[in-house]
Design a protein that fits this description.
- With 71 residues, the protein is an all-alpha fold.
- Helix content is 54%, strand content 0%.
- Helix 1 crosses helix 2 and helix 1 runs parallel beside helix 3.
- The mean pLDDT is 96.
Length: 71
């Protein structure tokens, strides 16, 4: 399993921040870091983007939590 690296996480956080301007990049990076062992870089990217598209999700912290975004 290949974890997300720093450059990938920063790029993903920047993308998510443009899609969800109400989410701050430092919070996104923290959530990505907390979730980095949950799957591959691909898994994490999919889960983070899936979580970000849900308007009921108020903070990026949910990325690191179990939920539908990981399915």
């Amino acid at each position: 399993m290949t974890s997300i690296d720093r450059d990938q996480a920063q790029a993903l956080a920047a993308l998510i921040a443009t899609l969800r301007p109400d989410w701050q990049p430092p919070g996104i990076l923290k959530a990505l870091s907390d979730a980095r062992t949950r799957g591959t870089a691909w898994d994490l990217a999919h889960a983070a983007l899936y979580a970000a598209q849900d308007p009921s999700v108020r903070t990026p912290a949910v990325i690191a939590l179990p939920g539908d975004h990981w399915r």
